[in-house]
């Protein structure tokens, strides 16, 4: 982890736990073609293991080729709920508001998820399921995969949008070769 991200993460972690429990969700965050599209495992050129710790990722950045399909194996090695979400900075900013609702409604509870609350109808056919193909939301110790096709070059990053995590430095760049 870079020194600047470490300093931000250390400062963030010094904040009390109630701040971490501060979010809603309407399933809109995963529909951004600007970052690519769901990929097929049979088309993946490689697998990248991504480990999520409390306020940083390993690796901190990835390199891809335009048109490449990558299989990500994402594991939460931290002590609290984290997200791996592929998108543009603008998508992440919008999604952070939805994630705030998830905290406010008790879906994200520090180190665990209330799966019953995730099914709650938020109106207009939206729920807090967090089931978009560009994203996984994981409790400590959990692992899932994301298969993503990076169809267009652009300003793309992977990030945790749980309230305060992005601001603490929990994001990484997607670099195009």
Proportion of strand residues? 25-35%
- Strand order of the main beta sheet, please? 1-10-5-2-3
Number of domains: 1
In CATH, the homologous superfamily goes by the name Cupredoxins -  blue copper proteins
Average pLDDT metric: 82
SS summary, helix count: 4
Q: How would you summarize what this structure contains?
A:
This protein is α+β, with helices and mostly antiparallel strands.
Please explain how this structure is put together:
- The protein is an alpha+beta fold and 177 residues long.
- It has one domain: Cupredoxins -  blue copper proteins (Immunoglobulin-like, Sandwich), CATH 2.60.40.420.
- 20% of the residues lie in helices and 33% in strands.
- The chain has helices at residues 3-13, 17-20, 89-104, 115-118, and strands at residues 37-38, 46-53, 56-58, 61-64, 68-76, 82-87, 108-109, 112-113, 135-138, 143-150, 156-159, 171-176.
- The strands form three sheets. A five-stranded mixed β-sheet has the order 1-10-5-2-3.
- Strand 2 and strand 3 (56-58) form a beta hairpin.
- The longest helix has 16 residues, at 89-104.
- The chain is globular.
- The model is unreliable at 3-33 (pLDDT under 50).
